[in-house]
From TrEMBL, chain A:
Domain of life: Bacteria
Coiled coil, from the record: none
Pathway named in the protein's UniProt entry: Carbohydrate metabolism; tricarboxylic acid cycle
Family of this protein: Belongs to the succinate dehydrogenase/fumarate reductase iron-sulfur protein family.
Organism: Kibdelosporangium persicum
Name of the protein in its database record: Succinate dehydrogenase iron-sulfur subunit
PROSITE patterns: 2FE2S_FER_1, 2FE2S_FER_2
UniProtKB/TrEMBL annotation, chain B:
Residue stretches making up the FAD-dependent oxidoreductase 2 FAD-binding domain: 10-429
UniProt keyword list: Flavoprotein, Oxidoreductase
Domain spans labelled Fumarate reductase/succinate dehydrogenase flavoprotein-like C-terminal: 487-593
UniProt keyword Oxidoreductase present: yes
Protein name: Succinate dehydrogenase flavoprotein subunit
Length: 253, 632
């Protein structure tokens, strides 16, 4: 049942750090987060780590395990062999605060830049009517637990600090798509997706989808359809004309 | 003088779960400058874990539902010990609070005619829980979070600053409330990341800090649930009520050991899942208490018919209130009819097609697959009781959420009274919305009424800072203590001695253990420095857990009856003379004292919503004299 595993955990802050080796007990059924907690309780009381639910629901415990972006609480020890060295490092795309904790404020900044849900002004609470089939598309995206693993993985920002300004990342492009597909949202979000959130940077590699612990089809169901909508708007002369007319008439009134 | 970062606000909300965010929205909409402080990242509070749904009598699935029925169910569930005014406000206002969420952007599951769908849950007479699959809490917290963002966008448009009127201080822990005379003057805490101190000067503080589950070993609660708000209120001079009532959810995971306690939503049973013992028998039919006999089916055929024809059949006893189910499971395991890992079986796989299970219970499917290697569409789950929710909390005024200390408000799990001795599933999320809003209003009215703002005394700030860093330089003369060790001793003792079944001598043992732990606290020593140091954080949280555990144990010892979330092996039945007695906890700084206090009798028109026959099971003859059924 129990055995001793070899762990290498990144220890340090935003200035310096190192991979430190630990030998630590592992019991049946445990996940990586359990082992990190055992390290805290027995060998490294000041090892910094974020976690809350321990059930894959809150998206706090994101890290890179043997280089793969994962939730520590959902990574079972049984997926490794007993003699494997398990390396745990913080998410690479965000600045380290300490040990496994990173500064994820980039994501909160981007969240704030997405125009909020904009319901029809005259629709009263209690009068909302939507069909299940119509809400399901946005519901898939609302499963997001904001673990930011997709943000961490996307190559547009992973090794390109300079793109962070212009690119909101898969999580928040998906938020734009979610609102765009909300049956009662009245805002047109296509220009913003392209111009403010950098949809054009995405070249649909699907790396974000691969790491999503909620198995949301970010690329196929959010990003590609969003790109199609943007393309439709930009190149469809009818839409273009309608837009012009609408803008003009709304200016007059 | 201590180095502290200072901020001035009108209202400081401690907690960013459903209750805190709803309170903050209200305070900001009333024009007040509002701070929200939370220990985790914004959007990660415990509310995110709620699964089953939010209870509101919208009547979308069964039009017979209304607030009176919801009120009755809530009082029944709490065994008539609830603060009836809170239960009334809650039942009346919950539908509006849920509909309001749709205007913030929430997307609940729908009925065929496009309205919000509602599901069955334990103790609720009609399908009443608005839900999104089994991730309702995530929807709720994300929606409120996004509403706060939308308010910040409005402020940005107006002032150029997103944080002009409402700012979230995340990963920041409050350790003390500060007062000016008898009134609240502010809150003191530290940034978890840097360990630096922070002071909020504010005339009003709303506590929305959630529960206390981390004082118990087997729990569905996260590290945040260390009873901070309960302890902050006590130390500031406020009172706690009903602390003996702790809800042990009947269905937590029991295997593997590292996930023991993690919740299996009641939605599994609401949607058709049934409990079985090792003989394959649906044992709940043997555990229907006298008071519930006419509401619950006594045979499998009727119980199964109820899912499709609830008007003509009684409901399945698998959906009895949680305390009943938890005790039943406990008895089955004790009688040797448990599952291999010490629980019982929860079977959904034989009850509906795999596809439907995956659609209705996606996160349960995922959770068991990933954490236990169990495919719930093909085999039963193993489940057992887990410490889940504390009914007890800060004693508040129902309408304004005001605590005994002027300027202090409390809402959500940290507040007491609403749920009486036992909370119904789904009634917490609605509680957060109803009383979160009311706390925001209460705080706003209070601030508006003030002639002058209270001031924080520097000496109080220095004292709070000195207390916080004590674990780096222990003052005790004994051997150094590791906070992790003390914590696990406390958890083990509370779990074993003040857990789901209690006895006077065991509770006394627990109290002795608490005294012993208290005497070791001055020796707690932590290593390292103040930057993101979990050992230090735990040392600080431990003060709170010890204080709160003492309240739980002392109140549990005094209440010599069994009711809801308090079961005394040595006093196994409910006693009508205890029904209207509340146990009120307060502290002098070191010890907890508990006194009895009578409950205010229910308003006549609410009293008359119940049949005399039902009330006779709970009330004394004297109390029933005024009921029209008695007069007739
Ligand atoms: C697994 C699970 C499933 C559940 N399912 C349901 C359900 O289906 N329906 C239902 O109605 N209820 C359910 N509940 C109960 C419900 O989720 C909780 O009671 C409710 O979410 C509590 O909300 P809250 O706003 O009071 O506190 P929380 O959401 O817990 O928030 C507490 C906040 O206070 C902050 N805080 C605490 N202490 C401090 C401090 N010292 N300084 C600063 N900040 C602090 C925390 O960081 C956090 O932000 C469930 C509970 C669990 C554990
Ligand atoms: S699909 Fe787009 S958003 Fe996703 S990882 Fe690739 S480039 Fe990034
Ligand atoms: S989309 Fe998936 S990977 Fe990205 S933040 Fe949300 S849950 Fe995490
Ligand atoms: S701890 Fe919540 S997702 Fe891992």
């Amino acid at each position: 049942m129990g055995y001793k595993a070899q762990f290498r955990v990144w220890r340090g802050d935003d200035e310096s750090g190192e991979l430190r080796d630990y030998v630590i007990e592992v019991n049946e059924g445990e996940v990586v987060l359990d082992i990190i907690h055992r390290l805290q309780a027995t060998q490294a009381p000041d090892l910094a780590v974020r976690w809350n639910c321990k059930a894959g629901k809150c998206g706090s415990c994101s890290a890179e395990i043997n280089g793969k972006p994962r939730l520590m609480c959902m990574t079972r020890m049984s997926t490794f062999t007993e003699d494997e060295v398990i390396t745990v490092t913080p998410m690479r795309t965000f600045p380290v605060v300490r040990d496994l904790v990173t500064d994820v404020s980039f994501n909160y900044t981007k969240a704030r830049e997405v125009q909020s849900f904009t319901p029809p002004p005259d629709l009263k609470p209690g009068e909302y009517r939507m069909q299940q089939v119509d809400v399901e598309r946005s519901q898939e995206f609302r499963k997001c637990i904001e673990c930011f693993l997709c943000q961490n993985t996307c190559h547009v920002i992973r090794d390109h600090e300079e793109n962070k300004e212009a690119f909101s990342g898969p999580r928040f492009l998906m938020r734009v798509a979610e609102l765009e597909m909300h049956p009662l949202d009245t805002a047109d979000r296509r220009d913003a997706a392209q111009d403010e959130h950098g949809l054009g940077y995405c070249n649909i590699t699907k790396c974000c989808t691969e790491v999503c612990p909620e198995h949301i089809k970010i690329t196929d169901n959010a990003l590609i359809p969003m790109k199609e909508r943007v393309a439709g708007r930009r190149y469809d002369p009818v839409v273009w004309l309608g837009n012009k007319l609408f803008r003009r008439s709304s200016k007059k009134s | 003088m201590t180095q502290v970062e200072r901020h001035t606000y009108d209202v400081v909300v401690i907690g960013a779960g459903g209750a805190g965010l709803r309170a903050a929205i209200e305070a900001r909409q009333r024009g007040l400058r509002t701070a929200v402080v939370c220990k985790s990242l914004f959007g990660k509070a415990h509310t995110v874990m709620a699964e089953g749904g939010v209870a509101a009598s919208m009547g979308n699935v069964n039009s017979n539902d209304n607030w009176q029925v919801h009120f009755r169910d809530t009082m029944r569930g709490g065994k008539f010990l609830n603060n009836w005014r809170m239960a009334e406000l809650h039942a009346r206002e919950a539908p509006d609070r849920v509909w309001e969420l749709e205007t913030y952007g929430a997307l609940f599951d729908r009925t065929k005619d496009g309205r919000i769908s509602q599901r069955n849950f334990g103790g609720h007479e009609y399908p009443r829980l608005a839900h999104v699959g089994d991730r309702t809490g995530l929807e709720l917290i994300r929606t409120l979070q996004q509403k706060i963002v939308s308010l910040q966008q409005e402020d940005h448009k107006e002032t150029g600053d997103y944080e002009a009127k409402i700012k979230v201080f995340q990963e920041c822990t409050v350790t003390d409330l500060l007062k000016d005379g008898d009134r609240i003057a502010g809150a003191f805490g530290y940034w978890r990341e840097s360990g630096r101190f922070i002071l909020f000067e504010a005339p009003a503080v709303v506590l929305a800090t959630g529960g206390i589950g981390k004082s118990f070993k087997v729990t569905s609660n996260s590290w945040e649930y260390t009873g901070d708000g309960h302890a902050l209120a006590l130390r500031a001079g406020a009172t706690l009520i009903n602390m003996e009532f702790i809800q042990f959810h009947p269905t937590g995971m029991v295997w593997p050991p590292s996930v023991k306690g993690i919740l299996v939503t009641e939605g599994v049973r609401g949607d058709g899942g049934v409990l079985r013992n090792s003989d394959g028998k649906r044992f709940m039919f043997d555990y229907i208490p006298e008071v519930f006999k006419d509401k619950y089916a006594d045979n499998e055929e009727e119980a199964d018919r109820w899912y499709t024809d609830p008007d003509n059949n009684r409901r399945t006893p698998d959906l009895l209130p949680r305390d009943e189910v938890a005790r039943a499971i406990n008895s089955e395991v004790k009688a040797g009819r448990g599952s291999p890992h010490g629980g019982v079986f929860l079977d959904i796989s034989s009850r509906m097609p795999a596809e439907e299970i995956r659609r209705r219970l996606p996160s349960m499917h995922h959770q068991f697959k990933e954490l236990a290697d169990v495919d719930i569409t093909a085999e039963p789950m193993e489940v057992g009781p887990t410490c889940h929710y504390v009914m007890g909390g800060v004693e508040v005024d129902p309408d304004t959420a005001a605590a005994k200390v002027p300027g202090l408000f409390a809402a959500g799990e940290v507040a007491g009274g609403m749920h009486g001795s036992n909370r119904l599933g789904g009634n917490s999320l609605s509680d957060l919305l109803v009383f979160g809003r009311r706390a925001g209003m209460g705080a706003a009215d209070y601030v508006d009424s003030l002639a002058e703002r209270p001031a924080v005394a520097q000496s109080d700030v220095d004292a709070a800072a000195e207390k916080a860093v004590r674990p780096f330089d222990p003052q005790g003369d004994g051997v150094e203590e590791n906070p992790y060790t003390l914590h696990s001793e406390l958890q083990q003792s509370m779990n074993d001695l003040v857990g789901i079944i209690r006895k006077a001598d065991e509770i006394r043992q627990a109290l002795e253990k608490i005294e012993e732990i208290k005497s070791r606290v001055p020796n707690i020593a932590v290593e390292g420095h103040r930057q993101f140091n979990p050992g230090w954080h735990l040392a600080i949280d431990l003060y709170n857990m010890i204080l709160v555990s003492e309240c739980v144990a002392k109140a549990a010892l005094l209440r010599e009856e069994s009711r809801g979330g308090h079961t005394r092996d040595d006093h196994p039945s409910m006693n009508a003379t205890w029904r209207n007695k509340l146990l009120v906890c307060s502290t002098d700084g070191t010890d907890v004292s508990v006194v009895e206090q009578p409950q205010i009798p229910m308003r006549q028109e609410l009293f008359e919503l119940f049949e005399i026959g039902e009330l006779e099971k709970y009330y004394t003859d004297e109390e029933l004299a005024a009921h029209p059924g008695r007069n007739a």
